[in-house]
């Protein structure tokens, strides 16, 4: 009888699923649903297994439904404290990204200008042989690897060990340099250590949320839904959207304040001016827990090759800092920021109210900035001036864009200057890495080599001859793309690309290695709130596709480094994790053990004596602290640093020839360059191609209507695409906005490769363009 009931339940579930699909198809006849949605309906029982989402840095916990050797369903994991059972539209459709018809399943090598199939053994032999040939001919610094915040933690760790410990070059970078480097340098310069001091639980305690240039409703929708939920539960909660264009976040916010590009620097200083002027600061906190610093100004923009810069901190007094702020009275700041003195005073009153807990969120708007480190410092300044930090609901919180930009890049250290626990310039850190890796310390170079932009410039110049690109699409994402696309196609350059689908980057490859995706292999991601999340291998990868971790190991062994990579294919992830965790032992950054990660939806570090650390730098929550209150132990003086950072103009501003600002970014339906989400038919048809948002007044004056074809031109390139007027978003007058997900409309042909000299992160948010209506001849 019990078996009959079980079978009936299974039948009813499958019938309900099929009915839902049929109903949806009839309601939306213009949409052709993906074959996977219809053909992939489960024929047997569904087995649910946990995994983090494959897409953004929020790190939502998913339950993947498996049936007959295929992923057939997704739901939010109710045990995950990140999303509490909820997903965004990308998360709900995430498993479909594995089943595109053009999935790469066999290696390809370029012969006589054409890509031809080969075996994985031959492809790996060729990669190892070519890498060794370049080293023998041009030296070890002529080879490089470029990875991603989409790498798993084991991927990044093995890449670091391979490049820095085995080959002995610091030519290792990841695309998080393009999205999170300013967050890193901001944390380190203000606190001495990287990663947020707070966590997502701050949302449940905060009274005010200030969003600094962050379209959270589209970029981090699950977290934004938690903000909205708090406002429903507690009507006094306020959401303030501080942005350069009107978005869905603006519409949902309690107040939308629009500022001129780069004006955020002046606004932050003006808020501090008001805090001091009105005596809203926490003097006791400042005296006990803060130091005041100044650095070099007029620091350049990194536009020239081999740009060098150093920024040494000088100590100043609180009185010096007050004098510095005199240039940032709200009435003075109005002109440069575009924000009224009244709105600046309002913002300051929210931070200054002793009865309100304030959490700030930001992402690419602050970090993709030629003064990205500075604006991070300035947001911290505000929180430090009022002592609203490191306690529940009081957090300055930098969000991430990729699933493991924190775990694999910031924690593992897959950047030229980093090691898994420190920096290459520090002898003690090099000795520790050498001991764990069992290599001579002399093999690990003490000087950083090339950050991402300079690495591609070095490829252009010929200083680098070999580049291995994994899990990223730089031929869409690099700024000033024309230069770097030309660079990789020079005859004496050799490019290897590991990916799951054809992209503009695989188009320029000499070898393409098919990669296993996500739950087709075991791994870990690290999300924005210091949460490490393990996922097991649930499915077999198609054809000869192989995990990026194992690809690197196979090449390393072919190059003679067998003793450094002794792990078996069956248990290599567990062994890699245990070796990697040795770098972070202790109360400041202890990682959860492998066995615990396998069981939990995710665990936050520092993980000490079986417990997660939710808030850092306060003794009530953080076991690494000394004393009984705040302890900013990342700095030698155990104090947080408040920086005097001035407003400086961008390197390129609109003029008579190029009168518009160009801003770029993302959309809700697609993730980054769209190489996965555009193969999910529902998402692709919801947002099939890119567009340019134009302010309605500008559009009217130029005779441009919604859908008209227009041309954007910068000093670097041009592009034609349809106009979007009065649709999803609305730029301010004199500004246009273009998303970058569409590989057929490469907006980065126009962008400028200027970067923050401290973080080396490029600014994708502002350059000068002209806008022209295209006369279409029928």
Automatic annotation (TrEMBL):
It catalyses: 2 Fe(II)-[cytochrome] + nitrate + 2 H(+) = 2 Fe(III)-[cytochrome] + nitrite + H2O. It is an enzyme of class 1 (oxidoreductase). Keywords: 4Fe-4S, Electron transport, Iron, Iron-sulfur, Metal-binding, Molybdenum, Nitrate assimilation, Oxidoreductase, Periplasm, Signal, Transport. Mo-bis(molybdopterin guanine dinucleotide) binds at residues 90, 150, 175, 179, 364, 368, 473, 498-499, 548, 664-673, 748, 765. Predicted to be exported by the Tat system. The position of the signal peptide cleavage has not been experimentally proven. Substrate binds at residue 740. The keyword Repressor does not apply. Pfam families: Molybdop_Fe4S4 (PF04879), Molybdopterin (PF00384), Molydop_binding (PF01568). SMART domains: Molybdop_Fe4S4. PROSITE patterns: 4FE4S_MOW_BIS_MGD, MOLYBDOPTERIN_PROK_1, TAT. Binds 1 [4Fe-4S] cluster. Its EC number is 1.9.6.1. Residues 46-102 form the 4Fe-4S Mo/W bis-MGD-type domain. Belongs to the prokaryotic molybdopterin-containing oxidoreductase family. NasA/NapA/NarB subfamily. Component of the nitrate reductase NapAB complex composed of NapA and NapB. This is Nitrate reductase. The lineage of its organism: Bacteria, Pseudomonadati, Bacteroidota, Cytophagia, Cytophagales.
